[in-house]
Write a structure and sequence with these properties.
alpha/beta, Rossmann fold, five-stranded parallel β-sheet, 47% helix, globular, Nucleoside 2-deoxyribosyltransferase
């Protein structure tokens, strides 16, 4: 199975999440070929130079050869590069596993939170994600709320 890990890669936090997620996937899924863009120094060594076309062509080639996309959805908003990768990959009609670990997902059954939101829209204790992007993921995939659940979803694919 070939997989592509999409997430931001410029902050320490993103890079650490990518390392953790990649390690968990590689450990749990025997023989997986996992492409992690931050490991591709040809286009992502920021002390060197790669233009936008080189980056787009390299990542598109890896997306096209992948069986599954693992896309991290955390952050203030979905990373713009990740959203673009989801859009491009969705055109291949292959599974996408979203990884969304934001703790504001907890307590969805708490009626006080729901009632507060109904009374005052600024009391939103939940988190919003672009529904078009979420819909692209759900067309052929799923959204996991932890690294462990993402690994389980990949293992279920049997590709």
């Amino acid at each position: 199975m070939k997989a592509y890990l999409a997430n931001g890669l410029f902050s320490l936090g993103d890079r650490l999440v990518n390392e953790q997620l990649a390690a968990a996937i590689r450990q749990a899924v025997a023989g997986i070929e996992l492409y992690v863009p931050q490991e591709n120094d040809a286009i992502n060594d920021k002390t060197a130079y790669a233009d936008s076309l080189a980056i787009a062509e390299a990542d598109l080639a890896m997306l096209q050869s992948s069986d599954v996309l693992v896309a991290v959805l955390d952050g203030v908003e979905i990373d713009s590069g990740v959203a673009a990768e989801i859009g491009a990959f969705s055109m291949l009609n292959r599974p996408i596993i979203g990884v969304f670990t934001d703790v504001r997902q907890q307590g969805r059954e708490n009626m006080m939170k729901i009632e507060a939101l109904v009374r005052d829209g600024t009391e939103n204790q939940f988190v919003y994600r672009n529904l078009f992007v979420i819909g692209l993921i759900k067309r052929n995939g799923t959204i996991a709320s932890s690294i462990e659940d993402a690994v389980k979803a990949i293992r279920k694919l049997n590709l």
